[in-house]
Write a structure and sequence with these properties.
The protein is mainly β. The protein has one helix and 17 strands. It has a five-stranded mixed beta sheet, with no helix packed on it. The radius of gyration is 35 Å and the shape is rod-shaped.
Length: 265
């Protein structure tokens, strides 16, 4: 047997030995002597030589299990394809030729993510729908109003939260108050304005003091406010306008208030 024949035989035996080893073990590892699953690539060569690698070590791994599940950044995928970026809120999946400015395709279902991170067909278009906020109160409390400054209406405050990025808030606010005792006379005018976090919003309604036999004022204020992210409080305040009785208090009592609003998701 010459030298060439010996080399061919040696190569053949080596390949056969590797093949038999792979068949016997049923696992293939690249950059690791401790493959997980039936196929495992350890990109950074940092997996432990024995035992199960840590989660941090497997962030650079690619693995395939015997049931066909594929993991990127994980050696224990729970779906046909699972990606672990290692950073919460970041999927690790990126498309090079589409982004948020790409025109949608008509007739195609939208995808969403459930609480477990599974990608599913969304029940509604992304961004569609609205979130409502508000409240109501029938608490009664007396307060005095004059023309010198706004008076805060008791039990008229409602707190709500706007998500990150801020929203345009479409709102309606209804307030009913009783005049305590006899009206001051002269058919005074009163303005109810909404205040957001203590600042005037510019949304208001003016009504005239009713005639004899009707001792109630009703205000309905509607509009749109651009509201920043975070917790906010909206409330009602009243002032007397167009009157020569600015320094004289007219006493009122709240009957009911209702705040209802919505913003587009």
């Amino acid at each position: 047997m010459n030298t060439l024949q010996l080399k061919i035989m040696k190569t053949t035996l080596t390949i056969l030995s590797l093949s038999l080893s792979t068949i016997a073990v049923g696992q293939v590892g690249i950059n690791t002597q401790n493959p997980q699953g039936i196929f495992n690539i350890d990109g950074a060569k940092n997996n432990a030589a024995t035992g199960i690698p840590t989660g941090a070590q497997t962030l650079d791994d690619f693995s395939v299990l015997s049931d066909g599940k594929v993991g990127i950044g994980t050696i224990s995928p729970s779906a046909k394809l699972e990606i672990n970026s290692g950073v919460f809120g970041t999927s690790g999946l990126k498309f090079s030729q589409i982004n948020s400015t790409t025109s949608p395709t008509a007739g195609v279902a939208n995808l969403g993510i459930d609480a477990s991170g599974n990608v599913t067909v969304a029940s509604a278009s992304p961004g569609a729908g609205a979130t409502t906020v508000g409240g109501s109160s029938t608490a009664t409390s007396s307060f005095g109003v004059n023309g010198a400054t706004y008076t805060s209406v008791p039990s008229s405050s409602y707190t709500f939260t706007i998500p990150s990025g801020g929203k345009a808030l479409f709102l309606s606010y209804m307030l009913g108050v009783d005049i305590i005792g006899a009206p001051l006379g002269g058919y005074q005018f009163y303005r109810c304005e909404l205040f957001l976090d203590g600042a005037a919003t510019g949304l208001f309604l003016g009504v005239q003091e009713p005639g004899s036999g009707d001792n109630q004022l009703q205000f309905t204020v509607s509009g749109v406010l651009n509201v920043t992210a975070g917790s906010h409080t909206i409330s009602a305040r009243i002032i007397r306008i167009k009157s020569n009785l600015n320094g004289t208090n007219q006493n009122f009592e709240t009957i009911t208030s209702n705040f209802s609003a919505a913003y587009i998701n």
